Task: inverse folding
């Protein structure tokens, strides 16, 4: 770079010659130099600013572009950081207490149509009708050629049907994945499981929702993705349930009954091992709810939970146990049973005349209404209500079924003395067989309150005390005597020490005005083994009539008891209960080889 | 000296670029594998569920009791009844194995001559 001197010699000399001030030249040159320096500096600064600005613009531009791209793009799961199993999003299975499947899902397909994509709607409609005979060809054709853009053809199709539809080769017939709820055991435990159907439906998937039973009660729990499809384990034992249904169905047809129900409950844990209501249904193909008539005639009606009936003499043990607990009577106290017992315009009679008096034990064993009514009069209405409340007879059972609240007991509006007397032998208060099972379990397990449950548990309930252990034991002894020498003699099952109480109650007329003469509810409430109680079994028949004799027999001793005994014979070994055999001789042991 | 530094830096950048390029593609591969494994797990799950459902369906109590009835001649299966339980003293001890025969067995019914050993 050529640096211009501040005092160029040529100009200085010329200026001196002319007598001018040479400092002016220097100042002028200095000014020019400074100006040049300033220009360069500005240029450089401007360049830097430009670069800086460009950098900022690029940086913000990048961020802006990225934000725009993120906002505009479809959301995407971060594939690299998936925790757990992303696959299990289905409704959880329901299993029995041993893990056998009661309800599961099956992957099927739905079939829908886009008529506008069809090339040959006439052919497609014709072929579809061949595969699904229940479809109407004219209607299909009208739909295919009309201006509909979308229609469902079938909600569920089997793989074979899917292949057949594939083979039609129509471009307008499309499949969507569809989950189906499957109950592999058919009608077994149908009332407990309830059923499922579709909620919101889309082409890509459909919501499976529970419509009744545990499916509805635990709908949220079964659909909760956080549980990753952990199965819901019920207290039901599939094998026992199947055996109980078989025995009860056989009994129902022999006894010509309209309906039947049974409840088998573990009396320490409150677990319902089996609960049957007949007639039943197939939850895979749930029947329609009745729109007219009596709901209790529908197979959907759960007699064990929703069916509230006057259960009759099975209630006597409650009155007797309470009176003993209160110290009013002992097992051997003599009770006046002279009949009929007159109260106002009511007369209480016994089935047979049992003479002037019976011991407390015999009042239960022979099932004397008069004796029980007299005991109830000593207890009084208030204490009776309190006691029945402590056993759970005053409200619907807390069992985990969506139908449970509809099984609320029917109580007298005015709990007068006559109500107290009739309720003591099971009339005037309607409750479900499940109430009875819970009541018996509470009374006989040593005297602590049991609430029935359908969920598997392993520990006893240890509820509040209802009666003392001693009274509980005495109640079991009395029930045992009913089977040994009383009304339930058919209930004896060798080795299982069955104890129980029969109850035969006339059915009230639907329109009021008294009771039927020839329609009864026959109930047997039993406990086994009576010396070391483990299970409570309730068997109820609706309108049974055993016609093998000269005239039809309807009492529980002839109808419910033999069926209950058979049920114990079948289910007790399945529950792992060994028969208690005292002698060493082989009582009925089947020897497989000699 | 400076030239060497520049050269080293340039080589380092190229090396890093090459490495990150490779890592990028390895990651993509791994992700792809994870995706396909998930899909495989999904289909296996579905298959497992299907098999479980089929197992439950084939073992439904109605069918088993029907089968037991059909095959009664061969299997002789009966519902479990209380008499299936026995007591331990009703079962005999296993019989000892028969001892090996060392001496030959007399198969002649003729009387043994006097004075000789019976065996």
Result:
């Amino acid at each position: 770079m050529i640096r211009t001197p501040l005092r160029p010699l040529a100009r200085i000399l010329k200026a001196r010659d002319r007598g001018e001030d040479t400092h002016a030249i220097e100042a002028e040159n200095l000014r020019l130099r400074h100006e040049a320096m300033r220009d360069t500096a500005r240029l450089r600064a401007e360049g830097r600013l430009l670069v800086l600005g460009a950098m900022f613009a690029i940086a913000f531009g990048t961020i802006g572009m990225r934000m725009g791209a993120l906002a505009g793009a479809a959301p995407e799961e971060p594939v690299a950081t998936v925790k757990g199993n992303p696959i299990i999003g289905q409704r959880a299975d329901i299993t029995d207490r041993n893990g056998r499947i009661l309800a599961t899902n099956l992957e099927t397909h739905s079939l829908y149509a886009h008529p506008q994509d069809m090339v040959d709607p006439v052919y497609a409609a014709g072929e579809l009708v061949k595969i699904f005979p229940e479809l109407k060809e004219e209607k299909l054709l009208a739909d295919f050629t009309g201006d509909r853009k979308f229609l469902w053809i079938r909600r569920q199709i089997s793989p074979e049907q899917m292949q057949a539809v594939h083979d039609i080769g129509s471009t307008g017939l499309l499949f969507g994945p569809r989950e189906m709820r499957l109950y592999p055991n058919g009608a077994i435990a149908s009332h407990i499981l309830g059923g499922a159907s579709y909620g919101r439906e889309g082409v890509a998937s459909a919501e499976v929702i529970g419509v009744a039973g545990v499916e509805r009660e635990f709908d949220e729990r079964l659909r909760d993705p956080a549980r990753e499809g952990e199965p819901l384990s019920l207290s039901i034992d599939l094998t026992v349930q199947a055996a109980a249904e078989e025995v009860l169905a056989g009994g129902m047809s022999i006894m010509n009954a309209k309906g039947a129900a049974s409840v088998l409950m573990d009396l320490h844990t409150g677990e319902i091992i089996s609960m049957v209501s007949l007639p039943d249904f197939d939850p895979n193909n749930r029947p329609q709810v009745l729109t007219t008539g009596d709901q209790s005639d529908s197979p959907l009606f759960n007699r064990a939970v929703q069916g509230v009936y006057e259960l009759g003499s099975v209630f006597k043990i409650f009155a007797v146990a309470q009176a003993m607990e209160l110290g009013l009577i002992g097992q051997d106290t003599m009770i006046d049973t002279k009949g009929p017992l007159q109260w106002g315009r009511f007369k209480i009679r016994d089935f047979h005349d049992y003479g002037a008096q019976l011991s407390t034990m015999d009042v239960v064993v022979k099932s004397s209404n008069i004796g029980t009514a007299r005991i109830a009069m000593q207890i009084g209405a208030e204490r009776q209500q309190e006691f029945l409340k402590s056993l759970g007879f005053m409200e619907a059972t807390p069992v985990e079924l969506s139908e449970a609240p509809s099984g609320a007991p029917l109580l007298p509006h005015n709990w007068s003395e006559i109500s107290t007397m009739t309720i003591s032998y099971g009339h005037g208060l309607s409750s479900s067989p499940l109430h009875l099972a819970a009541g018996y379990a509470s009374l006989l397990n040593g005297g602590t309150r049991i609430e029935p449950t359908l969920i598997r548990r392993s520990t006893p309930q240890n509820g509040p005390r209802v009666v003392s252990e001693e009274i509980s034991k005495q109640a079991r002894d009395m029930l045992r005597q009913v089977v040994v020498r009383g009304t339930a003699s058919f209930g004896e099952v060798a080795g299982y020490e069955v104890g129980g109480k029969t109850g035969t109650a006339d059915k009230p007329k639907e329109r009021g005005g008294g009771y039927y003469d020839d329609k009864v509810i026959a109930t047997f409430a039993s406990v086994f083994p009576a010396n070391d109680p483990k299970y409570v079994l309730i068997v109820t028949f609706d309108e049974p009539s055993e016609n093998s004799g000269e005239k039809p027999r309807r009492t529980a001793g002839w109808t419910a008891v033999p069926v209950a005994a058979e049920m114990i014979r079948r289910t007790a070994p399945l529950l792992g209960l060994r028969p208690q055999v005292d002698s060493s001789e082989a009582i009925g042991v089947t020897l497989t080889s000699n | 000296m400076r030239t060497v530094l520049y050269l080293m830096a340039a080589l380092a950048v190229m090396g890093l670029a090459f490495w990150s390029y490779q890592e990028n593609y390895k990651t993509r591969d791994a992700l792809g594998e994870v995706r396909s494994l998930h899909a495989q797990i999904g289909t296996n799950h579905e298959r497992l569920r299907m098999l479980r459902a089929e197992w439950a369906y084939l073992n439904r109590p109605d069918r088993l009791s029907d089968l037991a009835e059909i095959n009664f001649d061969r299997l002789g299966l009966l519902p479990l009844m209380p008499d299936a339980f026995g007591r331990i003293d009703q079962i005999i001890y296993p019989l000892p194995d028969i001892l090996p025969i060392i001496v030959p067995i007399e198969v002649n019914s003729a009387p043994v001559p006097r004075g000789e050993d019976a065996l």
Notes: Residues 296 and 307 of chain A are 7 Å apart (CA to CA).
